Amino acid sequence: MVAGQRLHHPVAGVIITDKDRDYFAKVEAETGRDLAPGQRAWYVATRNAGLSGDAEKMWQEYPSTPQEAFQVSAEGMYYAVRLAAARKGGRIGLVPYVEGVPVNTFWDIGNSDGTGIWLHQRVGLQNRFIKYIEGWGEPYSHYVRELQALGYVWGRHHLPHNAEHKRQLAETIAAPRDELVKLMPGARFEILPQVERVIDGIQVTRAFFSQCWFDAEGCKAGLTHLANYRKTWNEKRGCWPAYSAFA
User: Fold this and answer.
1) With contact defined as beta carbons under 8 Å apart, do 61 and 51 qualify?
2) Are strands 212-215 and 188-191 parallel, antiparallel or unpaired?
3) Are residues 30 and 103 in the same domain?
4) Which structural domain, as residue segments, surrounds residue 127?
């Protein structure tokens, strides 16, 4: 924390909230340095008293990292805290393919033309995500070729609930699962159940994060998507949706 390093004694009466602690954990993860109590207190006191609690102004005036001076508020982002904890815990870095261990895939098949695929291995108690593949406007044969070119031993291919819904695919009307079965004969496919509410799926994902390791380079695009996944601001009510308290 650039400016906070000038002060090393706690400021009396400064309240450090859980949200502040999450922010400091994120800064420590990104910088690799621990923040002293005095630095934390100075930061909160300066933001609240000098800048009326405006986080974005604080980032611009006293950035904790070089990148922070140019960022916008992450308020409403679902996975920011979990990703920061994963970085601090060394769970985002070099996570290579383990020879001989089956690779599972988790597909996100959009209603438009986007597809994303996470590649996963279970090694001991670790859920290791070694690669993320995505594309737009490509036929399923494109993704199958990409997967087959890797030469991995495959486990199960997990598809979303809508993979059984028929849709226009090039010149035919068919379900994505049917097309993939044709392209990958002998492969094992599993349709994941639909969650009743989006927030329920998000909660399950966040609870699962502590068991996950990610290859920083191979999963770069997927991690960026997770970092940017956020709630929608309710302009009429001037607030986040009611379930924002679970962030």
Assistant:
1) yes
2) unpaired
3) no
4) 92-228
240 alpha carbon, distance to own chain's centre: 20
Spacing of C-alpha 229 from chain mean position: 7
Are 212 and 181 in contact, with CB atoms under 8 Å apart? no
% of the chain at pLDDT higher than 70: 77
Tell me, yes or no, if the pTM score tops 0.85: no
Distance CA 135, CA 122 (A): 25
Q: How many helices (H) does the chain have, and how many strands (E)?
A: 8, 9
Question: In terms of domains, do 178 and 142 share one?
Answer: yes
Tell me the two tokens of residue 20: 């502040």
Are residues 100 and 55 part of one domain? no
* pLDDT tops 80 at residue 166: no
Chain centroid to Cα 41, Å, comes to 29
Whole-number Å distance between alpha carbons of 212 and 120 = 10
